[in-house]
Amino acid sequence: MTTTPGLDLTDLPTGGGTVLVTGDGGLIGSYVARAYAELGWTVHGVSRRDLPEAIWQHHSVDLLDPEAAVAGLAALKDVTHLVFAAYIEKPTDPELIEVNDALLRNTLDALAAAGAPLRHVTLYQGGKAYGHHLGFFNTPAKETDPRLIAPHFYYTQEDLLRRAAAERGFAFTALRPEAVTGYAIGNPMNLLLVIGVYAAISKELGLPMRFPGTRGSYDVLYQTTDAELLARATIWAGSSDNAADQIFNVTNGDQFRWAGLWPRFAEHFGMDYAPSQQMHLVEAMPALAHVWQRLVERHGLVPTPFEKLVGWGVGDFLFHHEADNISSTVKIRQAGFADALDTESRMLDLFDQLVEQKVLPPLRAH
């Protein structure tokens, strides 16, 4: 993880305890675990798969199994902070509630069984708390906005955590990012890779950089959250009294329209720009896996299977959403976390980093 100007770690608490990061192989969890490790904390990470590249102490544990969770976390008797970034995708809300509540419950119970002196838990939510997945919602969304009537695992997890915090004496913070951008090996739920791989294949085919969504989506206001900025907010939340038992929106702090960014992507990648053309990436892109494989072989790219490289559905959802998506970040700034990034320049930098890391082929214009 590279440090961005204005996002250095020097003003954050160093060596302050022992943190457990669940979902440490995911986009959010991997950035948080690395940031804590770089600050000198003792870091334990948990997920179901092996992570040989981890610079922290990784444990392969099935948190869906209560007994396995207790056994797998039994040695973590010194954990003071829990960062809960574990998530399992399911097709319906009842299924999402069942499995994701179980992940959180089993983790908390296992740490309690180990006798860990837990002081703080960070939980992640997102724009779906306001109804982003349903279409239009009131903007700028504020943390005081009422819940939706429809059940959602964000709400049930939060209620579970509030009860546990009150009973067991720890504090918690719920952070609400939007469209987290960064890179984690084997994690396809990533807007950055949707755009980068789509651009690379288009360029290889001699095609222009064309927005693949609706005209309405092209013109609405949107926002993202950089994974490094979110990691900093997580560490701040775990150490600030102002963050105790609070919910905060966390974004880069600016807004943009795809209509403004897409021509800049084309310029940066040395591609022609063309007007938007609605399509469904989940239908169009799998048929072009052979083009990507050609790029992998030619440029010696990280050999991630194409079906695990990009979640095209992420792009389809965001590029067909025709309502403004804006969250207020006033509350977190007034509480003491004021980091901000220019999304346009940051995304261009991240694309260049992915090229350097051999995740994407050379794209930049020369």
TrEMBL record:
It comes from the Bacteria. Residues 72-273 form the PRISE-like Rossmann-fold domain. This is SDR family oxidoreductase. Pfam families: PRISE.
